[in-house]
Amino acid sequence: MSLRGDLASLVAGFGAALHDAGLPVGPDRSERFARAITLLRPQSTDELHRCARATLTCNPEQFEILDRVFDAVFRGYVDPADERGDPNAPGMTGSSTTTQSGGTPSVSDRPSTSEPERAVEAPVSTVGSAAERLAGRDFAGLSPEELALLADLMRRLAIATPLRRSRRTHAVQHQGKSFDLRTTLRRARRTGGEPLRLTRRSPRMKPRRLVALCDISGSMEPYARAMLQLLYCAAGTSRAEVFTFATRLTRLTKVLARTRPAVALERAGRAAPDWSGGTRIGAALKQFNDQYGRRGLARGAVVLIVSDGWETGDPAQVGREMARLARLAHRIVWVNPRTQSPRYQPLVGGMAAAWPHCDAVVSAHSLAALQPLLDALQGSAPHAAHQ
To answer: Where is the VWFA domain (predicted)?
Structure first.
């Protein structure tokens, strides 16, 4: 078995995936793992697994997390019970396995050490290649462990919003609309009191606020998790306001701040009491407009709405509240995974009422489909009516 790619990147990426999954893996354990690989030169995936257990865990209770992430990264499979019937599910490698009631492959399911190990023909893939292998798969078909593997790639993405003029100004040499008398006189001290150079002031430019509203109903839960992870990894929460809704609106900005994605998503589920419930888009939009939008949170902001448009309430209310929001926001981008189908048409329900008020509608159903979303947030994507 050969290890392709940079060993440091491999170990660092695998350690980050374990850390996101809840295993306290720090630089010291990752260094021990890398040293064990260098000294032992494992010739099979099972030997590499034994190295990982010996260096990255400190008690048997941590084996389950390590085994689950190791399988997803190096062996390329996940719990077969979760993927049964999914044609996109990754194939099983190695010997056939059975699952315990917990759903994850147990230690006893692995090839026995008493049997001769079969040669591993394919080289062990790195964390980066494993994530790239999942990049084209629909978020709805990914397990939480597989979604965590995409965090490294999501961190490379840059979420940018259009710039706007700030009320604050700064000194410039040319093209300023007003003179900066104080700075001009202060600099004139160097030239005997003669203002040889006039200083002007110009408004500062700053990115527009990003406001995200994520539908966490049952049909949208996998996509909401992916979008929340994207906001955490690529943009953080310093310039983003995050809300979730199903039957009610929940503000998650503080919950998602300053914590790793796995813990942040767990907290998001606890903070949103209607996680995986029904969907009342119109009521949630009205609550946002009444409590936050008209008070300035949405004024001049880029609003990102993640929902499939299934409305259990009155679709006419969706249209009214979207019209209110459009008058406040600079731009509205709607993420609807169902639009990935070329035959999709917004004919009924909440999506039909919201469509005329959206500046762009994108699917963003996979990592490979996120670029149109990033372009839409910047304002470079065409209007929804022109797509």
So the answer is: 207-376
